[in-house]
Design goal:
The complex is a heterodimer.
Chain A (H helix, E strand, L loop, with lengths): L1 E3 H5 L8 H11 L2 E8 L7 E11 L7 E6 L6 E6 L9 E6 L3 E2 L3 E2 L3 E3 L2 E3 L1 E3 L2 H4 L29 E7 L10 H11 L28 E4 L7 E8 L8 H9 L7 H13 L3 E5 L7 E6 L5 E3 L5 E3 L5 E4 L4 E4 L3 E2 L12 E7 L2 H11 L4 H8 L6 H16 L2 E10 L7 E5 H8 L5 H10 L4 E6 L5 E6 L10 H12 L20 H15 L3 E2 L5 E2 L1 H7 L2 H6 L12 E2 L4 H13 L6 E12 L2 E13 L14 H14 L10 E2 L7 E9 L6 E8 L1 H6 L6 E8 L1 H5 L16 E10 L4 H19 L7 E12 L8 E12 L6 H18 L3 E3 L1
Parallel strand pairs in A: 13-16, 27-30
Antiparallel strand pairs in A: 1-12, 2-12, 3-4, 3-6, 4-5, 6-11, 7-8, 9-10, 14-22, 14-23, 15-22, 16-19, 17-18, 19-20, 20-21, 24-26, 25-26, 28-29, 30-31, 31-35, 32-33, 33-34, 34-35, 36-38, 36-39, 37-38
Chain B lengths: L1 H14 L6 H12 L4 H7 L9 H35 L19 H14 L4 E2 L5 E3 H4 L38 E3 L4 H10 L4 E10 L11 E11 L4 H16 L5 E8 L2 E10 L10 E10 L1 H7 L7 E8 H9 L12 H4 L4
Parallel strand pairs in B: 1-4
Antiparallel strand pairs in B: 2-3, 4-5, 5-9, 6-7, 7-8, 8-9
Helix pairs in contact in B: 1-4, 2-4, 5-10
Amino acid sequence: MKISLNWLQEYVTLDAPVEEITRAITFLGFEVEGVQVTGAPALEKVFVGEVRTREKHPNADKLSICQVDLGPAGGVKTIVCGAQNYQVGDRVPVALAGAVLPGNFTIKQSKIRGQLSDGMMCSARELGAGDDAGGLLILSSRPEIGLPINAVLPPGDTVFDIEITPNRPDCLCHLGVARELAAWFSKDLKYPEARSASGEPEPAEASAGLPGGVRVDAPDDCPLYSAHVVSGVKIGPSPGWMQARLKAAGLRPINNVVDVGNYVMLEYGQPLHAFDARRLGGGRIIVRHAADGEKIRTLDGVDRTLNRRMLVIADGEKPVVIAGIMGGENSGVSDDTTDLVLECAIFRPGAIRWTSRQLGLSSDSSYRYERGVDPHCAAEAAARALDLIMATAGGRVVGPAFTVGGDVPWKREIVLSTGFVRERLGFDIPDKAMKAALEALELPVIREEAGPGPGMTLTVSIPSWRNDLDRPIDLVEEILRLHGTEKIPPAAVAAPGLPGEDDPVVRFNRRATDYLVGHDFHECSNVTLRSAREVAAWVSATAAQELNLANPFVEDQSHLRPTLIIGLLESLKLNQSRGVAVSRLAEVGRIFIERDGLIHECAAAAFIAAVDPARRWLKREPVDFYAVKHHVEALAGMAGVDLASEPLAPLVGGSQGWQEGHSAEAGLAEKGWTARFGLLNLSLVRALGVEGKVYGGLFAILPERLKSGAPRRRYADFSLFPPVLRDLALVAEEAVPAARVRSDLERIAREACSAAQAPAAAAFVLESLELFDVYRGQGLPEGRKSLAFSFAFRAADRTLTDSEVNAVLQRIQEGIAAGTPYQVRK
Amino acid sequence: MQEELSTLVARAASELPQVRTRPEFEAAKARYVGPNGDLTRLMKQMGAVPKEERPAAGRAVNEAKARLQEQFDAALRRLTEAELAAELGPPVDPTLPSPDPGPGTYHPLTLVREEMCRILRKVGFAVADGPEVETEFYCFDALNTPADHPARDTQDTFYFPSAARFGNVTKKTAGEKYLLRTHTSSVQIRTMLQSPPPIRIVSPGRVYRRDTTDATHSANFHQLECLSVDRGVTVRDLKALLDYIFTALLGPGTKTRFRPHYFSYTEPSFEVDLSARHLPKVNKEWIEIGGCGMVDPAVFTAVGYDPAIWTGYAFGMGLERLAMLLYGIDDIRYFYQNDLRFLRQFA
């Protein structure tokens, strides 16, 4: 909100420099977003001059040489001028040598294109007296020649653009800000005198004003409504001083009555509204909720459709104002208005906010009502407005005010111990200073008692405009504000040890990121919200139905991301299209997986790897399915999931993001985690405009599954004797997955181990079983493959002999022949 | 015999350097010291040597044997070296570039987040985490946000349809709506509801505002908040923490200042400014870096902490903003485009 320094001076004498006032506002708790100095500053050696002659400059088409008369200030001077908007005989500001114009621009006698110039004729902008830089400031009031320019120009003002926090609606006016500054600078606050309240109004005439009176049908939303009738006003422009202040505060002057309403709003914070009494149908005012579908054309010329939750001010026939927000075109003050009804009301903040949001319509009035207007100030503001109306538009108050509601008493006291303040602050402010701070803020201390302890107990009376103060802690803030937050003394951080550990999700994220970056991936950050189209294409149509927001802001960010892959591909594409070689991207973040109508928020890590696009002097193995499998296994391992021991299923239809036959998944919603990896769907990748094959992997897990935590591992003894190694190749049908062959073989081998050894003391085990070769082709029938495995046997207590191992191998071969469809390859 | 030995040694000296492979070497060696080797044969003749000549002959044989062994050792050394050289191949040109892509890079937001977490962990803050999908209770109610506060408005906050059901985001009350959290303060609420005081946590995370994307706004961005709850925590402690954080981050001489402000969940509340002259692209003395305050008693009441016993402070800031300040980045959108030329600058 814009606050004028000139206006503030009305209530408090501020003699500090502007910088000091800016600082005060800042440390009182209001951000100063800008300070604008308007009007002319004090200018030395700038005078009123009259142009006597004007001739073209011999060496420049656009310049003129003028003889300018400055009278007693310097006589006739020669001035070279580039402006075009003046004529001989005009009076203009003239800056002579030695003058310093805004922007630290010093005027000197100088030669311009060979012609001597004694000074400069000035535009409003050059004097800092306005924005007009289009030409010289023509002084059309023809002030006396030679007068110092400051005697002619309107005085300057300083306007602070202040952000008022939502808890301080009392500062949405000049008096409120003045009150704060008076407290800061220890000055007195002078309130304006409002006389009408005590004055005797004339008796009502039957024909004038509001014969129908005021009725409030919605007292919950309108706890106070008062209407004053003023008769015999003459509409015209408001006085210059009022216009200047309104302009400084950013409002456009309209006419004397409207301007008074705005002026008092900016003075007291109480919005006011004036009706033309003739235009109130039925001569009455009804405060009621609108009917559904009821219409009003507001002052901004827009037709608005109302509903039954919206409060309106109506006359006997129609709504005339959207209560607290904006008046209608049909009832306002116009040039021929003679009788007014002045509204001064209080509305429930929530009601105004709701309607304002619904209609997308806000105003200076609604802004204040939404935040709360002090009901106990309404009468004074109305009286002040009546005074100003009569002073600027004439007329007289007719009859007593029509007032409905508003008779809510106000009394609030907070009992505050100074020890409590010190305890919360952690440093000392003397009792006396605390009391002074409160009283400076017009929070009178009405009782003081000694104790508890060395401090005092203060009973503080809270004025009605400080509805934000309710508890002792609220007063701690008031005291600290006035004491100055810059004076909080430094200290060391107190950090007694706490046993808390980082959240398991945080640890997983960190490990996953470290792993991926350590494997040459570039960590990305993509937005969480994706489009329905992407979600349907890359995951499923169901996901696209379930993951949507109720109120997306833009169409292509309407859904939660069900995977990190979409974003990573987008990043891949961006780099490709910008000509940046890219192959490995990764991201760690939240994804949202839908299963059976329930959405689960999961911690996830994902990566993509495209074929390295760069030409290299030495060839490297391109990325393939098994490389991404390795990374996904590693990521799963960080979450405590042993992916190698989990059944893997090839990804088929319904998982559109992945290429059928070249991708796999493991885990399910029931397990609380999922892993997907392999080749990304080629046609989708192509459709995105990404070149080449892209492999990817994703591991996601429910955060609570990570939280359950793994028990601390226990050490297991291991053998110090050497292993015995044996190889065995099995021939199987092409369609049989290697994992099944392996698990069959492992089962048989373990059985063989235990069967071969009768005495437990002689036990040895199959320590590992590794698949080391896959072969198809010559020597094998069509549709078959050979899988070669390596066994490692080891005993805990001795070096194994060939014969005992061979016996086991014999049994394994028998077991395969008897119990499996595989053949041992000789 | 003496003569034969000398011839033998001389022959070996000319023969062995010609040997190229291990089998050749073994064969050559056998010709001298094998069962049918020449030296072996001469040694067998020792018995026939007259007794008085034997010591001299013995010495000569030993001498020859030692000489031969030297030859063998030298040849073997030469062979081993040659084999090694063959295995090694030609020497590398160390100035050729590695053909592997890389190295990987951390995202600048990760770098800044982790740096802040490290700084805070040193003074006893554990890193906490919570869901990005939240409910009105955790995001607003428990934080003392009035029921009709504009922050709750659908204009500013992303909501989910009332039919949306989340399997692992708990609701406090059945009727409340799901939304995308607008700040990470919801993590504070979940943490306080879960564990008794004292606590000290830092919660970094992604948050959402329904806002136009431009150079300084993004639909999602990241925050980092600290919460400390204990007996006797004061405003001065809060200021001490902020001074510590930014001194640790930016070096000695870094200053912070508090400006009174308003947040519904803290009282008193402050905005925090940082002395910023030494930061890139900053030409103001003070820049706003975050908000903080003493936890409002209403928040403690909402989570079942007794505000008569416990006090605490909270501090929050935007991670993008911090990263932009630290690195001199002037457009928030760069964080979400992942242009490698951007990402590579910070690792």
